[in-house]
Write a structure and sequence with these properties.
The complex is a heterodimer of chains A (about 110) and B (about 110).
Chain A: E1 5-7, E2 10-13, E3 19-24, E4 31-38, E5 42-50, E6 53-56, E7 65-71, E8 74-79, E9 88-95, E10 103-104, E11 108-112
Parallel strand pairs in A: 2-11
Antiparallel strand pairs in A: 1-3, 3-8, 4-5, 4-9, 5-6, 7-8, 9-10, 9-11
Chain B: E1 4-7, E2 10-14, E3 19-25, E4 32-38, E5 45-51, E6 56-59, E7 62-67, E8 72-77, E9 86-93, E10 97-99, E11 103-108
Parallel strand pairs in B: 2-11
Antiparallel strand pairs in B: 1-3, 3-8, 4-5, 4-9, 6-7, 7-8, 9-10, 9-11
Classes of the chains: A mainly beta (about 110), B mainly beta (about 110).
Chain lengths: ~110, ~110
């Protein structure tokens, strides 16, 4: 298996633009997580899905952030409009129901100018 | 919700020495405690984990201990090597995973 796949790996955009981050979880995993990592706040859980259904989005910072999982093999995290304080590394992770280990993707480094 | 605290934030050791990182958690219902290693430019990778029904687990040079009464758990790395240099995160999970702030470990050759 290729592991969790994220794209793009790097994104540089200007304030006010829409940003879409993509994730393909490991095949067969039922849970998908979106995290944000910054120096100041560490690794923060934004939202997670179980069987494509959002379970807990309490970590989503504000309405500018939205996440979808239209099917078991694809999820997006969208920021509209983006702001400089959104600059961070965004990780996607997945896990199966039989295991608690979360497998992380390589992350997307987002820079909002 | 769960709150995980991790200490120290930075740790520097000589090659061959041991390194210990400690974490505390707040939610007594947490039942799964993983440790992740994150190298520069990569996502966190699981190195060892422990469940609430076990007090200690060892895998070669890495060991984790759990004290459920005190709600703390620790990572022990023995015979450290330069390639152990990375940021290490502890986490605790009941409903969802909460991570500690991380420890930057530097192993000096």
């Amino acid at each position: 298996d290729a592991g969790v796949i994220q794209s793009p790996r790097h994104e540089v955009t200007e304030m006010g633009q829409e940003v879409t981050l993509r994730c393909k979880p490991i095949s067969g995993h039922d849970y998908l997580f979106w995290y944000r990592q910054t120096m100041m706040r560490g690794l923060e859980l934004l939202i997670y899905f179980n069987n494509n259904v959002p379970i807990d989005d309490s970590g989503m910072p504000e309405d500018r952030f939205s996440a979808k999982m239209p099917n078991a093999s694809f999820s997006t995290l969208k920021i509209q409009p983006s702001e400089p304080r959104d600059s961070a590394v965004y990780f996607c992770a997945s896990t199966g129901t039989a295991s608690n280990e979360q497998f992380f993707g390589p992350g997307t480094r987002l820079t909002v100018l | 919700g769960e709150n995980v605290e991790q200490h120290p934030s930075t740790l520097s050791v000589q090659e061959g020495d041991s390194a210990v990182i400690k974490c505390t958690y707040s939610d007594s219902a947490s039942n799964y405690f993983p440790w992740y290693k994150q190298e520069l430019g990569k996502g966190p990778q699981l190195i060892i984990d422990i469940r609430s029904n076990v007090g200690e687990k060892k895998d070669q040079r890495i060991a984790v201990t759990l004290n459920k009464t005190a709600k703390h758990f620790s990572l022990h790395i023995t015979e450290t090597q330069p390639e152990d240099s990375a940021v290490y995160f502890c986490a605790a999970r009941e409903e969802d995973m909460r991570f500690g702030a991380g420890t930057r470990l530097t192993v000096k050759p």
